[in-house]
């Protein structure tokens, strides 16, 4: 692994960064009200995932983990790979078929082992857990980093809202009229809800947008129970999960 920081303790390593909150004139015109965008694409790993995944990785390493294993459609794995590189530990990522070569190269550049686990996330995750069991049977230890279904991950994602509080205040606003976000596995949505409760914004509506053809959360809300999709029909396979986790 290159460019690691093994001389530092996990608590001393800053993984995610505060991202800009910018006013969007085009979206404000469409919505007929001020719209601000939180630019999580400027995180070092390329997405918001670094907040929660990074927090989970730091806690694992602080508790003695030296090998992190994650299943991912891309962004969670990249956050795990980046975090492991910065924390000076090994990372093994199980991702999906069809990941572009430039993305695979990024994993390699971060010193991570990358494996193709299957066509959808559920299968990748099952493959990752089989790998962890195999390692355990061989007397080797590794720590599983869940890409979304973890209170530790949600806690890390909640930092996004804590930043927005101060950024909106600087723009002259006490609170938003609504928060619009995406939902796939539900980790970001759960983290946002957790953060909004902590800053006493729990009365503010959250609008969660989900992909057609991978809409397990939408169907679960309508059914009032956890549901299983027959298949992922969206071309965005990395956003799909057959089972909704019941957030």
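^ Assign residues to that structure.
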């Amino acid at each position: 692994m290159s460019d690691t920081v093994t001389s530092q303790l996990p608590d001393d390593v800053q993984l995610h960064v505060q991202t800009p909150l910018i006013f969007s004139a085009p979206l404000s015109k469409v919505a007929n009200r001020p719209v601000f965008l939180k630019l999580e694409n400027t995180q070092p790993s390329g997405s918001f995932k670094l907040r929660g995944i990074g927090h989970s990785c730091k806690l694992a390493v602080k508790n003695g983990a030296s090998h992190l294993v994650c299943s991912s459609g891309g962004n969670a794995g990249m956050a795990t790979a980046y975090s492991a590189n910065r924390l000076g530990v090994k990372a093994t990522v199980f991702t999906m078929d069809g990941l572009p070569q430039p993305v695979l190269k990024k994993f390699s550049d971060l010193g991570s082992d990358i494996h193709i686990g299957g066509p959808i996330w559920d299968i990748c995750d099952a493959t990752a857990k089989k790998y962890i069991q195999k390692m355990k049977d061989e007397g080797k230890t590794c720590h599983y980093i869940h890409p979304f279904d973890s209170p530790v991950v949600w806690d890390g994602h909640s930092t996004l809202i804590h930043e927005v509080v101060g950024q909106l205040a600087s723009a002259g606003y006490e609170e938003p009229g609504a928060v619009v976000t995406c939902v796939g596995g539900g980790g970001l949505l759960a983290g946002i809800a957790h953060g909004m409760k902590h800053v006493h914004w729990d009365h503010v509506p959250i609008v969660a947008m989900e992909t057609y053809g991978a809409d397990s959360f939408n169907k679960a809300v309508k059914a009032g129970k956890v549901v299983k999709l027959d298949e992922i029909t969206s071309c965005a396979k990395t956003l799909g999960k057959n089972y909704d986790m019941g957030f």
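Strands lie at 21-23, 36-38, 67-71, 90-96, 113-118, 143-145, 179-182, 206-209.
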